[in-house]
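job 3f2a | input accepted
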Amino acid sequence: MKKVSNRLILFSGIIALASSCSKERSPVTAWEYNNPKNGGFEVVPYEEQETGPGLVLIEGGTFTMGRAEQDVTYEWNNIPRRVTVSSFYMDQTEVRNLDYLEYLHWTARVFGPNFYEVLKKALPDTLVWRDRLAFNEPYVEYYLRHPSYRDYPVVGINWLQASDFCAWRTDRVNEFILIREGVINHTPTPTEVDYFNTDQYLAGKWTGTVVTPIPSMSPDGGDRIVRMEDGIFLPRYRLPTEAEWEFAAYSLIGTTIGERINDRRLYPWSGAGTRNPDELFLGQMLANYQRSNGDMMGGAGALNDAGDITTPVYSYWPNDYGLYNMAGNVSEWVMDVYRPLSAEDKSDFRPFRGNVFKTQVRDEDGIVINTDSIRYDADSNIVSIPGMVAWRDVSITVADDNLDERRNYKYADNINYLDGDTKSQAELLSNVSWSENFDAATATKSESNGMYEYSKTSMINDKARVYKGGSWKDRAYWMVPGTRRYLDQRQSTAWLGFRCSMTRVGSPRGLGSK
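job 3f2a | predicted structure (514 res):
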């Protein structure tokens, strides 16, 4: 007999609670919750957010984001500034080759037979290992798939592919939770039309098999699907923001007494060196990086970091949050679009640049509209597939166009806001409010000078994404979390990987904290 989890038993017990002598009532209206006789408004038992697989809770707070080392590049793109980061979750390690192979295996099973292009888009670029004046061909052939490298960080992944992996992981974890709770059946051979997708399930459009539906408190009776209000689904896996990544890397929680930070920290560990000062491990390397010209791992018999290229993701000591390799091994993608003035422009609470606000297309009954074909632009990394919805962006979305009376934003695409868009230039330089009648063609010369003319005056555009941290191929300077670089979101390298994050909802400290 299939085991039903305690949480599902609690949901089923709502009916029993409704008929008991002691009923919970609204402190606002005095009406009983979970009572079909007065409308059936449901309030489910809930404690706190479940920690997703592979994640570590990063307790947020305030910190000085930006430059902590000399600005040797003289780019002035990370001026120090105090910001606040909310608590969130982050992967303990970089995403491994084994993890990505699991993703490729699932994609091949579901999309390979009929839509091979989807699988092809997900494949890492193993050719990033090639060097015209070095013999790196063995890595091209073996690094991704040979079991010797299964615990090494995946590389050759562009920003779009990393984002797709996060979206896929969200659906697989939420599917596992529903199976664990006894709500749905496991589908051993999913296809492109019936694989589990969180958004489709919440929209009532998933076509899989429900084993134990949730009893509805509606006066009409019947059953219902799991809803967001039940607290069963986890928030989406995603790339961390630049501020989140930097905050997690410094792990100042380990040097804080009260609200006083004893050590500003240059690296993710205390001290100004890259070797362990502890007597027991004296001199051992704290990260995988290039020490000097031609010295990738030290001399034979005394390898310093024992990593000619990458190393297994659990190598070296974790920082005070329990995160491994936040310095060295591979650099990591973050969500942000790159701008050199980010420190000046971004908010001081949850700073981020890259917002493109979208809304779901719904009918008059509030149901998400499905279409016969989902189309993506040329840079979305997903092909158009008739008759199905790809996992990367299941909700049918359009730019938010109901903006006339909004105060917090006036247009949907805010990637260029205050740094590159003609609209903001007009508002700032002309000292007039932005209006929809503004014509970019009439912008003054001083306004047009604020634009990033890609390939002409700048290598920066809206596809330039930030990546953080040093790698096996970098010097120690880049292991300082405050340093920042960028790369086109469609490109990849042999020294750039990623790890996933997840939003923390509710208490920033978790259950049981004061």
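job 3f2a | The first strand starts at residue 55 and ends at 58.
job 3f2a | closed
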